[in-house]
Amino acid sequence: MLTLTKSLFALMLGFIGATIFGLIIIPFLKKLKAGQNINIYVEAHRNKAGTPTMGGLIFIIPTFAITLFLLLTGKIEYSVNLVIVLFVFLSYGLIGFLDDFISLRRKTNKGLTQFQKILLQLIVALVFYVLFRQYTAGDSYLRISALGIDWNLGWFYGVFILFLLVGSSNAVNLTDGLDGLAGGLSAIAFLAFGLIAIGNSDMGIFCFILMGSIMGFLVYNSNPAKVFMGDTGSLTLGATMATIAILTSHELSLAVIGGVFVIETLTVIIQISSVVLLKRRVFLMTPIHHHFERLGWRENDIVKLFWIVGFILSLCALIYGVWL
């Protein structure tokens, strides 16, 4: 009961901190003219041009500040796992910030090149893997307890980790195309991971702080959005999800909890493959949330549907990861 109370308190701190910080930083971003450049192929979004981006700072800075405060005051215990999570959290946030900043300077949607972005992500993922193997009790086994499977992947586990971090961060990035979509799905995902990690109170509480901060961000990101998270936020959220999944030995649960992110990414892969190989499109537009827009669905209806699917998938992952 004490851990649950601490978790709810952490969620409240995150929400209040992000909500207040949003009131401060959004006018600052507007003053800097940090407006988002909108994809010209999405006609329905033309009226969103100029909306401030880099809004991921609204949940990144309060989450880090609150976690640091709780550590310094002894409210949560120091652990190597928490340090690793914070390292990935801030590192991917910096990569996303650089991408957004360069994009704004150029006044286009082009920030870092794909090669530069992937290279930086791989470097951080590689450092994470070294820290994971050197300073934690983590091993190279992939476990599926319900099926009694216990695979020792050996050196390939390092490749698997790199794939999870880079893949997850870019999956959230692809999903961040409608007001509140990626933020709401991420809040649901961190609720699930917070419950999974609740036995490891440090990471569990971090998840609840981050969830609260994302909810505070959604105050400004829900339709009509006053700010977008940008790559600053999306890369951070995806990589942090993957990190917590690895550190809690729930790597496969990530694919279920983040099922909507996986579907969004798969639709892009299917579309590109179909166009290259068959010279025809499977979807009207990808990622798939744009397909629904082309079908005439309202943005809010698409977001609510995807949130519901994400919530159901997270419940399924919790039943498997915590109960079975």
Protein architecture, described:
The chain is an all-alpha fold and 324 residues long. Helices cover 71% and strands 2% of the residues. It has twelve helices and two strands. The protein has helices spanning 2-31, 57-72, 80-106, 114-135, 156-175, 181-196, 201-221, 230-247, 251-257, 259-278, 288-294, 299-323; strands at 141-144, 149-152. It has a two-stranded antiparallel sheet. It is globular and about 50 Å long. The model has no long low-confidence stretch (mean pLDDT 90).
Count of distinct strands: 2
Query: What helical percentage do the residues reach?
Result: over 70%
Give the CA-CA distance, first to last residue: 22 Å
Largest sheet: 2 strands, antiparallel
- Strand content range: under 5%
Strand order of the largest sheet: 1-2
Q: What is Rg?
A: 19 Å
**Low-pLDDT sequence parts:** none
The gross shape turns out to be globular
Number of helices: 12
Structural class, by secondary structure, is mainly alpha
Q: What's the SSE pattern?
A: HHHHEEHHHHHHHH
Average of the residue pLDDT scores: 90
Concise structural overview:
With 324 residues, this protein is mostly helical.
Descriptors for this entry?
mainly alpha, 324 residues, 2 strands, 71% helix
Task: Summarize the topology.
Blueprint: H1 2-31, H2 57-72, H3 80-106, H4 114-135, E1 141-144, E2 149-152, H5 156-175, H6 181-196, H7 201-221, H8 230-247, H9 251-257, H10 259-278, H11 288-294, H12 299-323
Antiparallel strand pairs: 1-2
Helix pairs in contact: 1-2, 1-7, 2-7, 3-4, 3-8, 4-5, 5-8, 5-10, 6-7, 6-8, 6-12, 8-9, 9-10, 9-12
